[in-house]
Amino acid sequence: MNTTNDNPAGTYLLAHITDLHIKAGGKLSYRMVDTAGALRRCIASLLAAPQQPDSVVITGDLVDFGTEEEYRFLRGILQTLPMPVRLLPGNHDHRATLRRVFADHDYLFANGDGDAPVHYSVEAGPLRLVAFDCTVPGKPGGQVDPAALPWLEATLAAEPGRPTLLMLHHPPFHTGIGHMDRQGLADAALLEAVVRRHPTVERVLCGHLHRHITHRFGGTIAMTAPGPAHQVTLDLDPQAASRFRMEPPGYLLHQWDPAHGLVSHAAVIGDFGADHPFFDAAGKLID
Ligand SMILES: [Fe+2]
Ligand SMILES: [Fe+2]
Question: Nearest bound ligand to CA 134?
Fold first, then answer.
């Protein structure tokens, strides 16, 4: 296992995982998906990669039903990650229970305790990670809270020179996957107006869709990460049934480099064998 980040000085590598849907005791989700095993394989993939992430963010749906037992089980699995891990809730999460089990994650309390929305801003090397909680307890869809926008505006304005990643569970854009758009983010235009005023936002990082999707949003790039377990079926018929598929799972790696900006890579989890050379020992392209 490679335990050091050998990236050049000034670079920063952030792993973006989402939609773990952990169930207590490793019970299967939807009676067939081993989400705990999937998270363990995701972590093993991260730790075996040539470069280690400096930190990890997980953009919601951490567990399946928001119970304390689920969060405790999740906590045990996440302890195998040696780098800082930042969490935010999704529509399957329960804020107060998340805070109770992860009480040592100070940033979770930046906007209050209990059921208060989990808004926060933390430094991650040269980057700033801003979480904007748009979940609505008990509802699958999200909602931009107009009352929270002054905090977001002030937070984004506070450090205009620091590249910032804005994180929320529901993507603030139409994906074309009808059943997911019907449980999408209400009043996304309010958020877009704020983001547009702050070009320091390099990315808007989301989950919920269980697939990798990108879209222009507020003058920046918004994207969802794939799931480490099941993926939402890619069917762009607006009336398509709500289904998932066991496609190759994955996560995103975002590398910040002051000379080149932020580059986002999609990593696939699985055993695909050894690397193979393009060139032979004499430097000739293998024919
Ligand atoms: Fe999810
Ligand atoms: Fe979700």
Answer: 2
Report how far ligand 2's centroid is from the alpha carbon of 59 (Å).
9
Cα of 191 from ligand 1 centre, angstroms: 21
List b or e across 194-216, with b for residues whose CB sees 16 or more CB atoms inside 10 angstroms.
Answer: bbeebebbbbbbbbbbbbbbeee
Do 163 and 127 meet the contact criterion of CB atoms below 8 Å apart? Answer: yes
Task: State pLDDT tens for residues 243-252.
Answer: 999 999 999 9
**CATH homologous superfamily for 12-268?**
Metallo-dependent phosphatases (3.60.21.10)
d(CA 64, CA 21): 4
Confidence of residue 3 (pLDDT cuts 50, 70, 90): very low
Taking the CA of 210 as reference, the closest ligand is 1
pLDDT, tens digit (0-9, with 9 covering 90-100), for 188-217: 999 999 999 999 999 999 999 999 999 999
Contact 127, 161 (CB under 8 A): no
- State the burial class of residue 142 (Cβ atoms within 10 Å of its Cβ: 0-12, 13-18, 19+): buried
Checking if the pLDDT of 32 tops 60, the result is: yes
Place of tokens 């709500």: 242
**What residue type is 129 in one-letter code?**
L
Ligand 2 mean position to 61 CA, how many Å?
Answer: 5
pLDDT digits (tens, 9 = 90+) for 162-182: 999 999 999 999 999 999 999
- Residue 57 CA to ligand 2 center (angstroms) comes to 15
CA of 162 to the centre of ligand 2 (A): 29
Sheet harboring 250-257: ordered strands across?
Answer: 85-88, 55-59, 12-17, 250-257, 261-268
